[in-house]
Amino acid sequence: MKYLMLIIVLGILVSGCASPAAPVATPTPKPTDNATLGKACTDAGGKYLALFNECEKVSSAACSTMGGSYNECASACRHAPEAVMCTAQCVPVCSFGTASTVKQPEAVIAQLNNPLECNLLQEPKTIDGAVAHYSCQAPGAYLTFVDTRANPWTAGYFTTDSQSTKVTYGPEKVTVVAKP
Q1: pLDDT per residue over 99-140, tens digit each?
Q2: What is the pLDDT of residues 158-179, one digit of tens each?
Q3: Where are the domains of the chain?
Q4: First to last CA, the chain
Q5: What pTM, to 2 d.p., does this model score?
Q6: CB neighbourhood size of 154 (10 A)
Q7: I want to staple 58 with a disulfide (CB 3.0 to 4.6 A). Which of 46, 50, 68, 72 is the partner?
C-alpha cells in the first residue's frame, strides 16, 4: 500500500513538472488571388505587377511566405521585348504561377509616315536577334510584341534584308493601333 501511494505521488509530481505541450503552429494560408497577392507583396515592401503575376523587390523569405518562386536576378527588361538596349541590373522577383495572358491583337496599323498594316504571326520568328511577332505588308518589315498595357499601344518596328535573315533597321519604338 505504501508503494502504491508512493507511485501515485511520484506520478503526480512528474506530470506536474512536465513541460506543457507546445502550441500547434497554424500555417499561414498562401495568398491566391490578385488582390491578396498584391496586398501581401506591398506589405512585404515589394511592388506587385498584376499583369505578370509577380512581386518585385522582396526577399526570398517573403516570397516563400507568399508561396511564390524566387528569382534573385531577373532582367529589368523582362517585360519590354521591344527594348533595343537593356541595363545589366538584377531585379529580385517573386513569381506566382502563370502570368496573366494578354491576347495580342490579330492585326494592327503601325503609325509610320505611311500607315503600315501588320498581322500577327502564327509563331514568333527570330531574325538576327530580333523577335518578330507581326509581319507587315511591306516586304521585310516586322513588329515585335505589341505592348497593350497603356495607351497608346507601342511595338518595336524593324526591317530586314530581302531574305529576312539580317536586321537592317531598328527595332524602333512606334505607335500602333488596332486594325478596324
Answers
A1: 554 578 899 999 999 999 999 999 888 898 888 889 999 999
A2: 999 999 999 999 889 999 999 9
A3: 34-95, 107-178
A4: 101
A5: 0.49
A6: 21
A7: 46
Residue identified by cell 491578396 is 36
C-alpha grid cell, residue 137: 505588308
Report residue 175 CA to chain centroid gap. 24
DSSP calls for the chain = -HHHHHHHHHHHHHHHHSPPPPPPPPPPPPP-SHHHHHHHHHHTT-EEEGGGTEEES--HHHHHHHT-EEEEEEETTTT-TT-SS----EEEEEE-SSPPP-PPPSEEEE-SSS-EEEEEEEEEEEETTEEEEEEESSTTEEE---B-SSSSEEEEEEEE-TTS-SEEEEEEEEEEEE--
